[in-house]
Amino acid sequence: MNRGTLIMVALALGTLGLAWSSRPHQVERTPFEDTDTPLFPGFTDPTLATALEVVTWDDKAAKVVRFAVEQKQGRWVIPSHNDYPADATERMGKAAASFIDVKKDIYYGDNATEHAKYGLLDPSGADGKGDEKGKRITIKDASGAILVDIVVGKEIPDKQGYHYVRGPEEKRVYGARLELDISTNFTDWIEKDLLHVERDEIVTLLYDPYVVDEQAGKVVGSSPIQAQLQPVDGKDDWAAAPGVETPEGKVLDPAKVRQVVTAIANIKIVGVRPRPEQLRPGRMQLTPQMQQVLQSKGFFLAPTQAGARLYGNEGEARIITKDGIVYSLYFGEVTYESGLALTAGAEEEGEDKPVMEEGAEGDEKKAANRYMFVDIAYDPSLDKTAGEPEMPADEGDDKDKDKKNKLKGDARAKQLQARFGEWFYVIPDMSYKQVHKDRGDMFKNAPAPKPDGAAKPDGAAKPDGAAKPDGAAKPDGAKPDGGKPEGAKPGGAKPGGAKPDAPKGDGGTPPTP
To answer: Could you give the CA distance from residue 311 to residue 212 in angstroms, rounded to a whole number?
Structure first.
């Protein structure tokens, strides 16, 4: 090998060595004096946590978003939603436990200029955007002392379950193993089962799919249907109550009644609003200001001898349970709001509130939802459980799922009145559509007459204790704008003939279809 060749080989080897030494590679982080020590050494008991706040940045909406849950006077509430009750005992325990025994596993340096690439910028600060900003989580105890205060950033590549973290006022960055179980969705923190009623408890359905003519100021198309669970051909099934107007050649369709009853029992919450004082059951007041507020949500008040009567512009439904509890549901206008405007109503009402909201990712899609009021009453004449032994209820909040099985009748009604008396709701429009049927859809073709001349199911004798349908009111004549009724009778006959009494209860007489 000549000298020239040797020189060329040496140069090639040198170039190869330079390339190898310059290749990209993961810089190993050196241990630091406090690595492998707890992030929060004084926090060892998750039951001490009584307040949680999460602050994030919504890049799509270009705003800071916050969500908070805290314990006030022994009950969990959501401050951003007018202190709506939170079902938080278990979830708060899990959230707090996420930070017990969490350690500073890896030291990543003290260079603040690297915070953006780790996703650790202050979410409420002016710098950075998108995934450059972190999530600040603060947990406090009953005295207001801080148990946890940390900014959580991106997941660490190739280290599943590890995140970059730092103290809010610190430059130093660590890697820590975190199993975060902290939801900032409103519906994850509440009891989503709105009515607390099982389908099998329901024995009567009163349904009136009327509409409100806003121009004329009156209810039109009212023709209530009352369905009762009663013996039919040897088994319990739904049949029309005597006096219900039935289309010629038709009978009530039990399958459609079951669909409506099931849909009512399964209604969920997507948003809440404080119920105005003038609309509390038994104390409804008709004022021009209240009328204007209600109309924007699809509700109307009409004067009656007993005070004022509530209407929903998309009709109403009522269910009665075995223990005499009467649920009255009023369906109002559709809303396409999203975010905090949907779940709490803060933005749509123009309230000057801090932005407290869930879903920092900002990827929620606008969908149709609907306003709904719920009233509760108790009618002892409809209570089929009267006289049965009642199990004592445990102390605690009214969202205990077992309570409804322990309390019956009047006691249960009072509990439900307290639950519904302070709020009205936003429900998925799909839930409303599952309840809402055209009147004609509730009937099917009558079966051929039996040879022995047996009566049709909807002509069955009214069983003892059957609901007294208060659908005999004449809503067509009621003028929600406060005018006198025009005197027009509803489109259908009054079920049962004579005008029946409305269910009675401490919560006031519920509006009648």
So the answer is: 8
Each residue of 160-201: pLDDT tens digit?
999 999 999 999 999 999 988 788 889 999 988 899 899 999
Helix residue ranges per DSSP H, 205-267: 254-265
Phi-psi region of 238 (alpha: psi -120 to 50; beta: other; left: phi over 0): beta
Structure tokens at 173: 């960055």
Q: Determine how many CB atoms are found less than 10 A away from the CB of residue 32.
A: 16
Say how far apart CA 498 and CA 507 lie, in whole Å: 25
Query: What's the rounded Cα separation, in Å, for the pair 311 and 230?
Result: 29
How far apart, in whole angstroms, are the C-alpha atoms of residue 484 and residue 472? 18
The whole-angstrom separation of Cα 271 and Cα 98 is 28
Which of 469, 457, 491 shows the shortest CA–CA distance to 255?
Answer: 457
Whole-angstrom distance, CA of residue 164 vs CA of residue 175: 5
Q: Measured between alpha carbons, how far is 246 from 252 in angstroms, rounded to an integer?
A: 8
**Residue among 181, 28, 167 nearest 104 (CA):** 167
Is 190 within 8 Å of 87 (Cβ atoms)? yes
